[in-house]
Design a protein that fits this description.
three-stranded parallel sheet; single chain; 2 domains; about 325 residues; Tyrosyl-Transfer RNA Synthetase; globular; binds tryptophan; about 10% strand; 7 strands; about 55% helix; Rossmann fold; 13 helices; mainly alpha
Length: about 325
């Protein structure tokens, strides 16, 4: 049987967080290591341009996130790793899909509405509205079966299915309809400074998130400042959102069960819990940080990985694009 194709990406729009790792990248690594899929993981630099950004920072973060992919355990021998903009088929297919996607589908997207509000009217770009179409192109180019993403991305995978279905109906069967897969737990690690919002790498305040490259001191400081409530007991209670989030993080980084954790902190207070949590998080990210620092000294290796990944991606995406162009009524180049 043909291997299932798995594809996902993260935008280099800020500091890759513990939430990105727990909710997404660790799941990709697991999938990759199961060895029964063909894997495509990429850094979505084009998506990072949809809100106001600084070109210099975009460049830095694109490389940083690429290296963090490797540091987190993505293995170029098992997964194709590349940078989205190095595969021009993504933008070309986006145009073709744009012309076949009703705008009414796009302005209802939750993420679009939220981000529009955040950036303010004059900064809502055409690109921001078009974000889901670019994402659909990302997915459809590789005949993707499974898209492992956080819960908030489910709607974007759904619209990719709808775009595929519509195109198939109008021009003949061309695209495979992808499925979203959410991680079993910890899909939503919330912000340390606001448990109502997802931990976000593009948050204004660094106290929102744990960066995978934070120093041990940063981590202790951030966790000590994390919001809690006036309750006393350290227990998993969904209604105590801030504490629940910290406990979820504890569970995710230690792999220890709820009951054991509750017993461990029975009769203890926040200060003690937070200190232990910070120690556990430091321990958890240490190998990632170490590997990253090593890769920084091996830039040639990183370049080579990304070059090989893009070459493979261009091959596969190019084939799909060729078929799509013909179906859509474009003449082959002479
Ligand atoms: N929108 C995704 C996110 O914010 C990133 C992304 C872009 C993506 N293209 C993709 C994820 C294709 C999966 C597949 O997390």
């Amino acid at each position: 049987m043909a291997k299932k194709r798995v594809l996902s990406g993260v935008a280099p729009s800020g500091n890759l967080t513990l939430g990105n790792y727990i909710g997404a990248i660790s799941q990709w690594v697991k999938k990759q290591d199961e060895g029964d899929s063909e894997n495509w993981f990429f850094v979505v630099d084009l998506h990072a341009m949809t809100v106001p950004y600084d070109p210099k920072v975009l460049k830095e973060k694109t490389i940083e996130v690429s290296m963090l992919y490797l540091a987190c355990g993505l293995d170029p021998d098992k997964s194709n790793l590349f940078i989205q903009s190095h595969v021009p088929a993504h933008t070309e297919l986006t145009w073709i899909l744009n012309c076949n996607t009703p705008v009414g589908w796009l302005n209802q997207m939750i993420q679009y509405k939220e981000k529009s509000k955040k950036v303010g009217d004059e900064n809502v770009s055409v690109g921001l509205l078009d974000y889901p179409v670019l994402q659909a192109a990302d997915i459809l180019l590789y005949n993707t079966d499974l898209v492992p993403v956080g819960e908030d991305q489910r709607q974007h995978v759904e619209i990719a299915r709808e775009i595929a279905r519509r195109f198939n109906r109008l021009y003949g069967n061309t695209f495979k309809e992808p499925k979203a897969v959410n991680p079993p737990q910890g899909a939503r690690i919330m912000a340390l400074d606001n448990p109502e919002e997802k931990m976000s790498k593009s948050a204004e305040s660094k106290y929102n998130y744990i960066w995978l490259l934070d120093t041990p001191d940063d981590i202790h400081l951030k966790i000590s400042k994390a919001v809690t409530d006036s309750g006393k007991e350290i227990v998993f209670d969904k209604d105590r959102k801030a504490l629940f989030n910290l406990l979820t993080i504890y569970q995710s980084v230690t792999g220890v069960g709820e009951q054991v954790i509750e017993e461990r902190f029975d009769g203890k207070g926040y200060a003690e819990f937070k200190k232990d949590l910070a120690d556990k998080v430091v321990e958890f990210v240490a190998p990632i940080r170490e590997k990253y620092l090593e890769l920084e000294k091996n830039y040639d290796y990183v370049r080579d990985v990304l070059k090989r990944g893009a070459a493979k991606a261009n091959e596969v995406a190019g084939e799909t694009l060729k078929k799509v162009r013909t179906r859509a009524g474009l003449i082959d180049p002479m």
